[in-house]
Amino acid sequence: MTNVKKFEKLTKKDLWKIYFRSYWIRTVNCPDRMQSLGLTCAITPILEKYYNTEESAEIMTRYLEEYFLTNPIMSYWIIGIIVSIEEKIAQAISESKEFSRDIISAVKTALMGPLAAIGDGLYNGTLRPVVAGVACSLALDGNAFAPFLFVLIMASVNIFIRYTGIFVGHEQGANFFEKLQSSGALKRIIEAANIVAFIVVGSFATTNVSFKLGIKWMEHAAENYTTLQSVIDGIMPGILPFMFTIFTWWLIEKKRIKPITLIVVYLIIGILLSYLGILV
Fold this sequence. Notes:
Distance between the termini: 78 Å
Number of strands: 2
Number of helices: 11
Radius of gyration: 27 Å
Largest sheet: 2 strands, antiparallel
Order of helices and strands: HHHHHHHHEEHHH
Strand order of the largest sheet: 1-2
Shape: elongated
Oligomer: single chain
Number of domains: 3
């Protein structure tokens, strides 16, 4: 029978311990259980607070044996929710009430996929390219602060998500994401972020990608030349850089061609076409 040494509500000091230990979530990935070791490391303070050595070790072993994998940043929300449940379980034990640890496994299983999609889609797939695009634009203009801006924005968002994951996740429990999903707000947030990302990345493609045709011809035997590039720009400005960007994405994403390989190939083709006057 599991016994609680002495039940006390978790303090901010306890949550801060969990917060800093959670940074090790991806330090050691076990091939068959992935982030289970990092998760166990994160919640160790709460187990040591409520249980003696043998009982806490038994609970840790259960965490270690269960598969856990999600987006590292969004994992803080799951950790915060698990801590909230562990606190309620400890309280139930101290009051001699019935409890079940199966709910922890159920919550982990239910949230791993959705939160991984949110983290990979919004943070890695949307925010990072947008911020990187802004920083690259500033760097191309000679702004030395550009790389520091990228690090500052990404680190600030990273820390904010991690902080709210532990503290708000602990306070709200598992109901927080259930409310977001049931109301449809989560889906709308993801869709809106994706639309913004497409617009921003599309604009970066037309302004930062150089793809100009050098083909030209003389009109009416005069010395005025008309270029193919001006004709295309008159129909749809920036279409060639945009199409070139989409084509490059297709090669990397669908054909699995390495970026380094593309850089070398593009360099050779670019020099050749420039020499022939097809590109300028």
